[in-house]
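Thread: quick sanity check before group meeting

JM: Hey all, I'm pulling together slides for Thursday and realized we never actually wrote out the predicted structure for the chain we discussed last week. Dropping the sequence here so it's in one place. If anyone has concerns about the input, flag it before I start.
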Amino acid sequence: MQRREFLSLGASIAGCWAATQVTHALPGKTPIIDTHIHLFDPSRPGGIPWPEKTDTALYKAALPGRYARIARPFGVVGAVVVEASPLVSDNDWVLRVAANHPIIVGIVGDLVPGTDTYQKDLERLHANPLFLGIRYGNLWGRDLGLDAQKPEFLPGLKMLADQGLVLDSANPDVNLIRAISGVADHIPELRIVIDHLPSAAVPAATRDEYWSVLRQLAKNKNVFVKLSEVALAHSEQTAPVAPSFNHDRLEELWNVFGEDHVLYASDWPNSDHHATYEETFSIVRNYVAAKGPVAEEKFFWKNSVAAYRWHRREPDQPPGD
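JM (edit): ok, ran it. Output follows.
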């Protein structure tokens, strides 16, 4: 073994050890709201649209009980579910599942603004206080930039704002960030939550535009970002999953959006592709702890209230909307 390889291996081992030491000290005094998890059950009649059967890491039931057993030891007291299906009926399935599991404080569903049944479905789902809004972006073959040009699409998003609901994004790239900025310009009162920015792959040719648009979005008080997918490298390079992983990208995003507009999000169980919950949590816990207790409290729960207006369901949860 070459000396460089030996040192690299040692660094990897040390990183894993450090992650364990960080999480052993938890939970702390700050309650934690995880703003991005997925629920699904492959054993349901008719199956599920995602994940695929070939995905051995994910293709098993991801339900609130399993999530609670994994996340509660780290101080997580509540979670927001982000729908992982394009089927309108699956919004209702997630709401039924969440009804009996108060660790779930809200649901971000999946609807297509401007479709014939959109308004009716939105009103029906919004009657349930757990329903917080919808997700739209780079999934299910959709294109926010193109769809926003359709005559009924932006009025459909305006309905979200009018009803106090939120728009989540999905899987960012330069085109999506540009499209989100356009939506924010048209409907500045709409609360928008951008996911997975730490892992976004940004080609060098579009990097300046990407960060320029993010800085413009950060001027809107209704735009928030999730520091999610933190264990996924945003380039072709790989690195050991240690508490310092992706530190520079987290710092860039924190500096752009500020401590009042960043949220904790695990992306469980999709995050299992890259790291354990412990490893994912350790990265953001280690990073945010250095910001001090005030910023830590904002990141782990207070900002999620401003972004999602979720409702408290258990005594150990902080006060929601």
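AS: nice. Strands lie at 32-37, 76-82, 104-109, 131-135, 166-168, 191-194, 223-227, 262-264. Confidence is low (pLDDT under 50) at residues 1-26, 234-240.
JM: adding both to the slides.
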